[in-house]
Write a structure and sequence with these properties.
Rossmann fold; 4-stranded antiparallel beta sheet; alpha/beta; 446 residues; 17 strands; 6-stranded mixed beta sheet
């Protein structure tokens, strides 16, 4: 029996969660396609530079892209084979990007340099280096290089680690199934994070609509009294960093601040699992679990997919599309990005592939704002979306900055709840970009 959920954050919404088609689906390993196209930018920060050439023979797990700068993560091959090209290819979040295309030889020959270790045998510095070399990034969608997050400045004392197992986005169940099937790996990765940061307290937050995941994680962590599995109320966006911190620690991240400002580091459960595999098996991040679902797919599944696998191949392996497909989304329906082609590849930040028919995608006519303030009520950051939207449409970006537009987490709750069907989040996103550019130009001028 699942315990009562802890207190929740202010604001948020309750969209239909639509997880029934895959929440009981075990993770299946997808065989790699004949061709993979691996982008050289799969993280926040500087793009990688190719360290292989066309015609080179490549082994599975071999480094093919090197990060140039501290905020970056190397790229590795998910197959063995031959490099066919290095050029611009479609990308699920950037439109297009330089990518290394490899013809799979079907042998799956591993790079001989990949060696596993034990958590006890590695120092904190060695663990961070292992994570960096494995190319691990935040796998909840942000794709921030994990080794950077685990290297806070010396004046930022971290005393708490939180693992995000909320998976509050509708349709997605990849993290849910990871917690059910790989709970011990997740706890192992969490212990590595705690060792790196010298932290004695950790929480794993899981929404109460995942009772099997809660039980599995409690069983895996029962030997570690400093790790608590916390049951969260099912509400979107429960998995946002600032909301998790507020609910689990009662601390509030300041405006324009980071979790480390209140002594907390937050990671995704999938990131913790990837850390475990990098330590114990020496495996870099070359595959990830993805939920493939929606009204437009014949066979919804949770799949462990090699990085670089095209969406088109994955759809075919899920029984193909059905109906009149009008939208394909990389990620979840609230924060994911619509795609213009199925030729885009799975990248490190791909948590879901959603296909929708016209029955689920309605184009609403935008109406006038009636000043109902529903967008203000549901905003988990306590912003004023209606005002930010108005200022953005009138290019009053300085006013957007004054109203803390950069604190927006782009959860989409305001757009979802708006009775006038205004594209609030899209206009706020534009304002954020413009405010950032203005401040960069101002700093440069100084």
């Amino acid at each position: 029996m699942v315990e009562f959920a802890v207190s929740t954050f202010t604001g948020g919404i309750h969209p239909p969660y639509c997880k029934e088609s895959t929440e009981k689906m075990p993770i299946e390993r997808l065989d790699p396609p004949g061709i993979v196209s691996i982008p050289l930018q799969q993280h926040i920060g500087t793009p990688c530079e190719a360290v292989v050439d066309v015609g080179d023979k490549i082994k599975k797990g071999q480094k093919i892209g090197e990060a140039k700068g501290f905020v970056g993560a190397p790229i590795h091959s998910s197959v063995s084979g031959v490099v066919k090209s290095i050029d611009k290819k479609p990308h699920p979040t950037l439109g297009e990007c330089m990518a290394i295309t490899i013809e799979n030889d079907g042998l799956g020959e591993l790079d001989s340099s990949l060696q596993g270790s034990s958590l006890d045998s590695l120092s904190s510095h060695e663990l961070i280096e292992r994570i960096r070399e494995a190319g691990i990034v935040g796998m909840g969608g942000a794709a921030f290089p994990t080794h950077v997050k685990l290297s806070p400045p010396s004046d930022k004392r971290i005393d708490t680690v939180i693992l995000n197992g909320a998976e509050c986005e509708p349709y997605l169940t990849a993290d849910h199934r990871l917690m059910v099937e790989y709970s011990e790996d997740i706890i192992y990765g969490l212990r590595a994070i705690m060792k790196i940061l010298d932290v004695k307290k950790a929480y794993v937050g899981i929404e109460d609509n995942k009772p099997d995941a809660i039980e599995a994680m409690k069983k895996a962590s029962k030997s570690y009294r400093n790790i608590e599995i916390k049951v969260l109320r099912t509400k979107y966006p429960q998995g946002a960093e600032k909301q998790l911190i507020e609910v689990l620690t009662k601390r509030q991240v300041p405006s324009a601040g980071l979790p480390m400002d209140v002594g907390v580091v937050v990671n995704n459960v999938a990131t913790a699992a990837a850390i475990s595999w990098a330590i114990r098996d020496g495996m870099p991040l070359i595959e990830r679990v993805v939920t493939v679902t929606g009204s437009g797919i014949n066979g919804p599944k949770n799949l462990l997919i090699p990085i670089g696998t095209p969406f088109s191949y994955i759809v075919d392996r899920c029984g193909g599309a059905k109906g009149d497909i009008v939208k394909v989304i990389n990620g979840g329906p609230m924060m994911g990005l619509a795609q213009y082609t199925l030729d885009v590849p799975v990248i490190k930040g791909t948590s879901g592939i959603l296909l929708f028919t016209s029955e689920d995608v309605k184009i609403h006519k935008e109406g006038p704002c009636i000043r109902c303030a529903k967008c203000v009520e549901v905003c988990p950051i306590n912003l004023m979306p209606l005002m930010l939207n108005a200022y953005s449409k009138n290019h009053a970006y300085e006013d957007c900055g004054r109203l803390h537009v950069l604190d927006c987490i782009e959860c989409g709750s305001c757009s979802y709840i708006c009775p006038a069907k205004k594209p609030l989040m899209q206009n706020i996103r534009i304002a954020k970009r413009e405010v950032i550019n203005m401040r960069k130009q101002h700093a440069k001028a100084k």
